[in-house]
Design goal:
The radius of gyration is 19 Å and the shape is globular. Helices cover 74% and strands 1% of the residues. The protein has a domain of 198 residues: Orthogonal Bundle (Farnesyl Diphosphate Synthase), CATH 1.10.600.10. The structure holds geranylgeranyl diphosphate (GRG). Geranylgeranyl diphosphate binds next to helix 4, helix 8 and helix 9.
Length: 304
């Protein structure tokens, strides 16, 4: 990037993701140990450790560090974001929602443990997420912790995952989903939790209101970017691969960016969003912003 001087060492995202990802996994191990009743904890751990990319936790930690906070302060919220994400996938896969048999190449939680266990384990993981932030956040004053909890709750619920899911489900088969509705669904189902993770990190790290505002706008851009790229990948992945994910023709019934804008139009939109996201990071110390800049590129260029 031209804003960085030639003396700035290149940022190694792979190492950053591996190191931070390991810390997140250790923290999740501690936050969600295998305990009684195992019928609740086993499906939680099965789904949590099924190989997710940990994008939300990494964003939370990077945002906290960007505004001067540290990893330990962000970690409970980082874990909470991953727990909320994972429970939403467990519920999304259920027969009366998306009805998927496979997730990340493994049987979905309800296939492995039954529907009741998948529902209740998801429920308890959602509650545990908030309990964990409230009880285990070190190095931040209580008002910041309370704000972070509120931010994550809103991102999970009324302004995020649940709102996006209901609009998505109600739009299915209606055949008249326009670009505006598509954007609503993605801003809520996908962008909101990325935003919650980033903003919670910024709040806990002691960011100013102005910084938090910029982080929020940054996160909205990468949230939409995430989804546009997802839709592009759905088209460019081979049809055999698609068939394997669900055993049904998902692509045929879903409204997607490539269907609305064409593949080229979608790629252009992705490029615009990537640029806009990075613009929001311009006001920060360039060196400290490197992880978020690199994570933006990762989201734009990922292939799964
Ligand atoms: C009660 C909070 C709550 C949720 C229930 C089911 C539901 C409401 C919402 C569904 C939300 C959903 C499935 C959104 C899709 C999110 C998305 C982009 C998933 C893919 O994320 P990645 O690529 O996945 O980060 P990995 O596997 O890497 O973790």
């Amino acid at each position: 990037d031209s804003s960085y001087s030639e003396t700035t060492p290149p940022f190694d995202l792979k190492t950053y993701m591996r190191q931070k990802g390991n810390s997140v996994n250790r923290a999740l191990e501690e936050a969600v140990p295998l305990r009684s009743p195992e019928a609740l904890y086993e499906p939680m751990r099965y789904s949590l450790f099924a190989g997710g990319k940990r994008v939300r936790p990494l964003l939370c930690i990077s945002a906290c560090e960007l505004v001067g906070g540290n990893e330990a302060t962000a970690m409970p919220s980082a874990c909470a974001a991953e727990m909320i994400h994972t429970m939403s996938l467990m519920h999304d896969d259920l027969p009366y929602m998306d009805d998927d048999d496979l997730r990340r190449g493994k049987p979905t939680a309800h296939k492995a443990f039954g529907e009741t266990a998948a529902v209740l384990s998801g429920d308890v993981m959602l509650l545990l997420a908030f309990e964990h932030v409230a009880a285990a956040t070190p190095g931040a004053p209580p008002d910041r912790v309370a704000r972070a909890v509120g931010e994550l709750a809103r991102a999970a619920g009324r302004d995020g995952l649940v709102a996006g899911q209901i609009v998505d489900v109600c739009s299915e088969g209606s055949g008249e989903v326009g670009l505006e509705r598509l954007e609503y669904i993605h801003l809520h189902k996908t962008a909101a939790l990325l935003e919650g993770a980033v903003v919670a990190g910024g709040m806990l790290g002691g960011g100013t209101e102005e910084e938090i505002g910029r982080l929020r706008r940054f996160a909205r851009c990468i949230g939409l970017l995430f989804q546009v790229v997802d839709d592009i990948l759905d088209v460019t992945k081979s049809s055999t691969e698609l068939g394997k994910t669900a055993g049904k023709d998902v692509a045929a019934e879903k409204v997607t960016y490539p269907k609305m804008l064409g593949l080229e139009g979608s790629r252009e939109l992705a490029e615009e969003l990537r640029k806009e996201a990075k613009e929001q990071l311009m006001g920060f110390d360039p060196e400290k912003a490197m992880p978020l800049v690199a994570l933006t590129d990762f989201i734009a260029c990922r292939n799964n």
